[in-house]
Amino acid sequence: MTKKKVTFADIAQYTGFSKTTISRYFNHPDTLTLENQEKIADALNVLGYRENKLAKVLANGKTEIVGIIVPNLYMHYYSEVLNQIISGYDKYGYKFIVFIGNGSKDTEKQYIEELLTYNIEGLIVLSHTISSKQLASYHIPVVTIEREDKYVCSVNTDNYMGAVQATSLLIKSDCDVLIHINSKVDPAVPSAKRIDGFLDTCRENQFPHELVEKDIGNTYAENYENLKRIVGEIEKRYQGKKIGIFMSNDTHANVLLNVLLHEYHYEGFQDKFKIVGFDNSPISAQAIIPISTVGQQIERLADEAMQLLVMQMNERKKRSPKALKKPIHKVITPILIRRNTTN
Amino acid sequence: MTKKKVTFADIAQYTGFSKTTISRYFNHPDTLTLENQEKIADALNVLGYRENKLAKVLANGKTEIVGIIVPNLYMHYYSEVLNQIISGYDKYGYKFIVFIGNGSKDTEKQYIEELLTYNIEGLIVLSHTISSKQLASYHIPVVTIEREDKYVCSVNTDNYMGAVQATSLLIKSDCDVLIHINSKVDPAVPSAKRIDGFLDTCRENQFPHELVEKDIGNTYAENYENLKRIVGEIEKRYQGKKIGIFMSNDTHANVLLNVLLHEYHYEGFQDKFKIVGFDNSPISAQAIIPISTVGQQIERLADEAMQLLVMQMNERKKRSPKALKKPIHKVITPILIRRNTTN
DNA sequence: TTGTAAGCGTTATCAC
DNA sequence: GTGATAACGCTTACAA
Fold first, then answer.
1. Is the CB of A102 under 7 A from strand D?
2. Fewer C-beta within 10 Å: chain A N or C terminus?
3. Quick one: DSSP state of residue B215?
4. pTM for the model
């Protein structure tokens, strides 16, 4: 039916009004008589009008589109954040063009360039490759989530607090010594605070502890072998002691659990080992023994990010926009989730 | 620096050419002298030009934007499909506006309407709520993935073949009786073929079997309780027999595994039960005993979908576009992944 | 309350 | 090879 597109011109002709009046019907309906509003409304139906946002954008500059760059969707954390952000459409009305970073700084910059050609109003960045300084240089509203954020607005989980919660839980679980296994993390990345939180809590409580800073690989098999070795060493070092292990994420916590179950046949390994993970990803709940973990409040993380972005985008639409003097950094407290790998 | 946007007009003025020539520089560079090409290239750099795709779109209608509607990103299968499709940007150049269906037909229709106002060139649909008839009525290129697809182009996994592979593997694993646990599935949905594949294979081999068609809930706890009960009944019914269970997906296969391990203390439960899942989701590899499964070739699924869509979109750009007489349905063969829950 | 006309930044159609 | 000029569909002063 709708062969050609119906435009304001068609409606104007049909109703006898001018294009301007049709435009006003959409943007300032109250400036028309009710009668005329109805006339136009009828015409819209009869002709089967569908608005053309692109034409609108060309005229007023508001795309209502936000760009997102995620490192990957393989990790549940990222897909859940993406999920929550995109679902924000219902609340904020912004649409999202999504790019998946492939780790290369240059291609990610290209992605941003491409997004800019579409006049996106703002950008949400979860990938780590592009520095916040670089991001700031684009002079568009930006919010980063859980990454280096010196020069741009950001939302982060309170990783320090999360680590404190995890460590405290292990202490309360009657452990004799505490271990934190993590890869070497750039101190500028928020998750580096997990290490600080662990160390500080142990020290404050004058609790025996050890930090194992080692990259344990990217595949399940690599993780398994590396953790098997690490656990072997730890066990030797702390014979007869009850060991609490704070893992940097749930995926690794689960591998650790499997290692202990398989290699050490601890049917009652719970007497010997306690485990806390991080992220509250599905695996932590689905593991053979549900794993205690620190859950990021992803829904809030996403919502705060959108609020921060919307604020910047609105400011920009004002007659005399004022850039923020300082980037705003929001922090979301994580929630400790007690399951079966701790008391 | 780049206070105001640099337009063709600016470049034209700077170089002394007309806007037309600048446009030609981008679209038909070979019709300019090399000398002039360089002049313009220089100007572009000096002035810091960035193209405006929206203006371009208004003039020629090609947005290079495709809409995607996914039911959720909680299930790894969907996030992985999304991942692969979006990554197709590097190959096909299309950008993606993503919506997450919330199960309501009306809101998903609204999403499509919104996408249409942006003149998207095509649509990829993974969510199940909107009928293919309805989708076809929008008269834009559409491809669906693993869902009802009567009136539109689609790409699906060969679910029947996957079920045949899974069932055969269980037979080869020396089982005495085969069980398939699945919820009640609409026969129009491709995954319904898994049931057919199971039943046909059992019958052809004259193998004892049973189909358990039951909804086992949406949470881990529900899954656990339901499967515990189901397994209890099955065990009673087939005492002393080796039971092969084909689960409809890996998440449930993992719960089943945990049930068997916990409730039945089958250290050597492998002698009694064999399990095959479906999807090759991360959990199948990370489970305490890695689970054999049928893996969908998601990368191919996504790529075929894009090819099918690009084909339709290109046809539409021709002077006299010809609509397809019949929708095209592509089928991708899944791959059996043998791990430790089968021989 | 409504209309006129000039943009918004490109592309396409003619001319020259 | 290059340049006017008219679209593309809508918004927005400025008038009336």
1. no
2. N
3. -
4. 0.94
